[in-house]
Request: fold
Amino acid sequence: MIRAVVLFIGLTLVGLFALLNWTAFVTPTPLSLGVTTVEAPLGLVMLAVVAFLSVLFIVWAMTLQGGALMESRRLARDLQAQRDLADKAEASRFTELRTFLAAELSTVAVAQEQTRAMMMSRLDRAQEAARASQEEASNTLSAYIGELEDRLERAQLVPAQYERSDDTPLRR
Reply:
């Protein structure tokens, strides 16, 4: 933008200079073309050359700017397409991760349930074994106490004040 303003100011100054010196610009002068000599106003010829070069420069600059603009639009479209692809790939990865996590969590839940069931089964077996062991120890102890009472009664070492009860050992 600043370049365009500078160019415009420069061309305006050249035009103002030509207007102020118009009589010198239109004064005919002999000009050599190499093969022949022509009489023409040198100022007008130089002004025409400057105008032609200015128009040529403006056309070149516009072509260059248009090409850059088209290239930037193409790059923006390509960039947007790449962003869309990346977004789709990321969404796909998130979906895949979600599926993987769900599968892993269900595997963990199944394993946890199996472990809980196994622990409960072991606990039940341990309780049954403890009950059976306790009952066996109780029966053995009752048998020993009964045998001891029988021996004491046969030996008549048990005083008469003690009575035997079926459920409990000797009482006073």
Q: What stands out?
A: The helical segments are 2-20, 22-25, 42-155.
